[in-house]
Design brief:
The complex is a heterodimer of chains A (about 120) and B (about 160). Chain A is mainly alpha-helical and about 120 residues long. Chain A contains 7 helices and no strands. The longest helix of chain A has 21 residues. The relative contact order of chain B is 0.10. Chain B contains 4 helices and 4 strands. Classes of the chains: A mainly alpha (about 120), B alpha+beta (about 160). At the A-B interface, helix 2, helix 5 and helix 7 of A face helix 2, helix 3 and helix 4 of B.
């Protein structure tokens, strides 16, 4: 948990200071590099950079799926840190996780067709 | 030193605490305790290794524990590793991350169904596939940076030399 917090903090600092769009060494998406298509996570680091600088509209334009994935990841992180919370049953329920996977796949297809 | 969990008078699971701390927590010989490796909760008085730490006869009756009931499950329940699985799909976008989510999603359901061994196996699998996705993503990133710096940049420099 402590290690995870340190990694998250380091990532936040990196996302704030480095502009992924203007840096050749910034992490690149393997899927995008190989196929030229956008993966569901593409734009997350640019979005994080913009959001941390308060540019919310720009952040959304890079990848609005983080409105779903980040809150869900946070909810799961909370029930992992406090496993005795009663909402755990719902947050980590199979169908909730499957719904997330389906949305993830749908977003993958839709963004490449619609060019989002 | 072994850490113990115990049930308070309202049957809530508490701990883990060191064996030597049990007495201060109000654990008596009638209180149900459990540690890693025990099949089920036992009264502290039944465990010889605790005789030095817990009082003889209790002032108040201990918890009304029914063997095999829920608290045991909470103690041992493996982490679903779902956080890592989700983060790998968001940050590394590997198909292996999706497999990790599917594994992680089964952990709690298997556990509540009483299939403890399978739940533990799924938990480990979800963790392993999350790590694999992260490693693959980092390796690809390094290859990508090398591809750019070793092949493309020198090539561009050569082209500029031609003009």
């Amino acid at each position: 948990m402590a290690i995870a917090s340190v990694i998250l903090a380091a990532m936040a600092v990196a996302a704030y200071t480095i502009d992924p769009a203007g840096c050749r060494w910034a992490p690149k998406c393997a899927f995008h590099a190989l196929t030229g298509w956008q993966c569901p996570g593409c734009g997350i680091s640019r979005a994080a950079h913009a959001a941390l600088h308060g540019r919310w509209a720009e952040a959304l334009s890079y990848n609005w799926f983080f409105l779903i994935s980040i809150p869900y990841a946070m909810a799961v992180a909370v029930v992992t840190a406090w496993p005795r919370l009663s909402v755990r049953r719902y947050v980590t329920h199979r169908y909730v996780a499957y719904t997330y996977v389906v949305l993830f796949m749908a977003w993958w297809v839709v963004r490449n067709i619609a060019g989002w | 030193m072994e850490k113990y969990y115990y049930l308070d008078s309202a049957n809530n699971q508490c701990g883990p605490v060191e064996a030597s701390q049990l007495g201060q927590c109000g654990v008596t010989s009638q209180t149900f305790v459990w540690r890693e490796g025990m099949a089920d909760w036992k009264r502290a008085g039944e465990l010889p290794e605790l005789s030095a730490y817990v009082g003889g006869s209790p002032a108040t009756p201990g918890a009304q524990y029914a063997p095999g009931s829920a608290p045991m499950a909470v103690v041992n329940q493996p982490s679903s590793n779902l956080v890592w699985a989700i983060l790998t799909t968001v940050l590394c976008c590997m198909p292996t991350g999706i497999y990790a989510i599917i594994c992680a999603a089964k952990v709690d359901t298997l556990w509540y169904a009483g299939r403890y061994e399978e739940a533990r196996r799924m938990s480990r699998k979800a963790g392993q596939w999350s790590v694999i996705s992260a490693i693959v993503a980092i390796v690809v990133w390094i290859l990508y940076v090398m591809w750019w710096s070793v092949l493309i940049l020198p090539m561009m420099r050569n082209l500029q030399g031609v003009y």
